Every structure is written in C-alpha cells, then in structure tokens.
Task: inverse folding
C-alpha cells in the first residue's frame, strides 16, 4: 500500500478516535450533547474497517501507541514532536516518503499541510 | 479562556447561504481551511454529527471536532435568516452556527472549555433575543465579548 494512502487512513482513524475519546470525557458529557448509541456502534464499526485497511504492522503500532498515550499521532511543529515536545533529528525533518515515528516517544509523526 | 479573543471577524459570516446541513458545515470550514485539510475536517465533523446532532436547540448549533489539520483552536460563525435543518435537539431549524476545530494536543483542554462556554453564551443570546442583533461581524464579536463579560461577573 502506498504511503499516502496509509497516511490518509491513519488520519481518518485518528480523528475518529478523538471523537470517541472526547465523548467519554466527563466535561464533554456534562455539556449534554445527545449521543445515539446505535450511531456510536456504527462509528466503532467504521473504526474497525479503517484498522483492517491498514497494513497489520502499522495497525499494531497505532493501537499500541493509542493504548499508551491515548493519542497515537503527533503533529510536527518547527522541528518538534508535539507529543513529547522533543526536537526531532534533522534527517527526519527532511522527511522521506514513509511513515515516521518520533525517536523519543514513538508516536507517529504528522506534518501539516501549510 | 476568553472566547471573544478566539473569534476573528473574517470568520464570521452573518449571511451564510442556507442549504443542507453538510453544505453549510463545508462552507464554514472553508472560512478556516482549504484543500485536503478542509476535506479531512469536514469528514470528521460529519462523523461527529452522525453520533447525534450538535444542534443544541433554540436555533443554535455547535458542530465541533479535533483535527490534525489545525495547530490552534479555530472558530467560524455562520448566521442565516432562513433556518437550516440540523436535526436539532428541539427539532427546530438552526439560524446560528458556531463551528469549532481544535488540535488533538490541546493544552488545558481549551477545546471542551470553549464548547461549554459557547453553550452558555448561546443560551444567553436566545434568552435576550440577540440572535439577529449584530449587523456586522465586528458587532457580533463585540456582542459576544459583552455577554462573556456578564457571564464571568455572574460567576
């Protein structure tokens, strides 16, 4: 599978996970948005579909990181990993066409489109 | 956390084109981002809407999500005189939309605090019948600032 496709699936999966994890936050529940149980199940199924679309090794890394940090992907800002706030080595900043992880915390790195 | 300081007049459109919920959400996202990032944001917002409408009733909706596509909390506001079917909690059309996008890593959980604050302000807006008062984006931002100050005093 091409790197761009994997990255796209990861982004969609990550955003979906953020929706699901925010819903469990007490502060969010207190706001009182109605949540349809059936739709939550459907979203969980979509999540599973996305996991299955990923190469098993990448899916495994993603799931492991999510369990450890809650958010498995960290944006890169000014050469820093915004998961652990450590500076990234120069060779990573001249990014190659592959999925990169932070050498310090292991999170999957994401470069925003400017 | 100061909501008025997060509102940018260029992202307040007091005459959005009425239309289907998805299209209105898309148009508001375009006030913040364009291109593939916008697509990602729209897709996430719509997935969130699938879980249950963010139309909180009395003509107001607050679609929201986190997205890798933004590096800070971003808000766009849209108002229309023709109601939009948002499947709101009270089943009534929506006239004012606050669209919120936050980065995944969000210091101090500003995202959830902002949503909470907008809900409070929205209730005040409808209670005081101020939904259509502001005539320009500048007036709208000033009005929100005033309501926010009053709410802070009441605490």
Result:
């Amino acid at each position: 599978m091409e790197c761009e496709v994997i990255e796209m699936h990861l982004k969609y999966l990550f955003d979906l996970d953020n929706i699901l994890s925010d819903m469990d936050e007490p502060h969010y529940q207190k706001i009182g948005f109605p949540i349809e149980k059936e739709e939550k199940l459907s979203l969980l199924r979509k999540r599973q579909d996305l996991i299955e679309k990923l190469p098993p090794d990448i899916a495994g890394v993603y799931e492991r990181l999510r369990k450890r940090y809650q958010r498995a992907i960290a944006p890169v800002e000014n050469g820093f990993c915004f998961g652990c706030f450590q500076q990234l080595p120069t060779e990573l900043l001249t990014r190659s066409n592959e999925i990169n992880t932070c050498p310090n915390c292991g999170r999957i790195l994401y470069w925003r489109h400017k | 956390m100061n909501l008025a300081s997060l509102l940018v007049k260029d992202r307040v459109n007091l005459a959005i084109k009425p239309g289907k919920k998805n299209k209105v959400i898309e148009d508001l996202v375009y006030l913040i981002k364009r291109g593939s990032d916008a697509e990602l944001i729209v897709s996430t917002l719509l997935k969130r809407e699938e879980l249950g409408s963010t139309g909180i009733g009395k003509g107001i909706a607050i679609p929201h999500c986190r997205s890798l596509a933004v590096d800070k909390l971003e808000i766009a506001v849209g108002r229309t005189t023709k109601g939009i079917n948002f499947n709101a909690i009270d089943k009534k059309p929506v006239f004012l939309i606050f669209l919120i996008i936050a980065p995944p890593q969000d210091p101090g959980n500003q995202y959830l605090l902002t949503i909470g604050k907008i809900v409070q302000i929205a209730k005040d807006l409808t209670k005081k019948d101020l939904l259509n008062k502001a005539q320009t984006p500048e007036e709208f931002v000033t009005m929100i600032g005033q309501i926010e100050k009053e709410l802070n005093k009441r605490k």
User: Anything to note?
Assistant: The longest strand of chain A covers residues 73-77. The mean pLDDT of chain A is 90. The radius of gyration of chain A is 15 Å. DSSP finds five helices and three strands in chain A.
